[in-house]
């Protein structure tokens, strides 16, 4: 009985609509929308007037990309854009991306996941390169959903 209850808790902790991050600063979680096809990734968070503090969007690519870069065309709210490798480890962060700015914000090579959250949150929480993210979409995670 105890094993079944424990397994249920582990599964509940890792959900499609939620990401968890951890680092030497502690842990944080965000409710997310998933952008996992080219249309959803192109639309992103454009034309939105606000996003709750605990929300974000997770962009999922089918494999690590040669180069990933985002811009803020038609995006009305400042964002932190967090670029992660195939294991969900943060490689780079574009802090406080400016609304409507069309300057490319590169994540570098080998990026497979990108998390957008409200601008300023990454720094205030402590999210930095080396932070680990877990989510069911990550096939070879540094931080497993079963931990």
Outline the fold blueprint.
Layout: H1 2-13, E1 18-23, E2 26-35, H2 38-43, E3 55-65, E4 68-70, E5 79-84, E6 90-97, E7 105-108, E8 111-118, H3 121-125, E9 132-134
Parallel strand pairs: 2-3
Antiparallel strand pairs: 1-2, 1-9, 3-8, 4-7, 5-6, 5-8
Report what the structure shows.
The chain has 147 residues and is of the alpha+beta class. It has a single domain, classed as Protein of unknown function DUF192 (Jelly Rolls, Sandwich), CATH 2.60.120.1140. The chain is 16% helix and 40% strand. The strands form two sheets. The chain has a seven-stranded mixed beta sheet with strand order 6-5-8-3-2-1-9. Strands 4-7 form a two-stranded antiparallel ribbon. Mean pLDDT is 91; it is low at 1-12.
Feature tags:
3 helices; seven-stranded mixed β-sheet; two-stranded antiparallel ribbon; alpha+beta; 16% helix; single chain; 147 residues; disordered N terminus
The H-level CATH homologous superfamily, spelled out, is Protein of unknown function DUF192
What series of H and E elements makes up the topology? HEEHEEEEEEHE
Main β sheet profile: 7 strands, mixed
State the separation between the terminal residues, measured CA to CA: 19 Å
Helix content: 10-25%
Look at the structure and give the CATH class: Mainly Beta
| Poorly predicted sequence stretches spanning 5 or more consecutive residues | 1-12
Overall spatial form? globular
Number of domains: 1
Structural class: alpha+beta
CATH fold type: Jelly Rolls
Number of strands: 9
Strand share of the residues?
35-45%
Mean pLDDT: 91
CA-based gyration radius = 15 Å
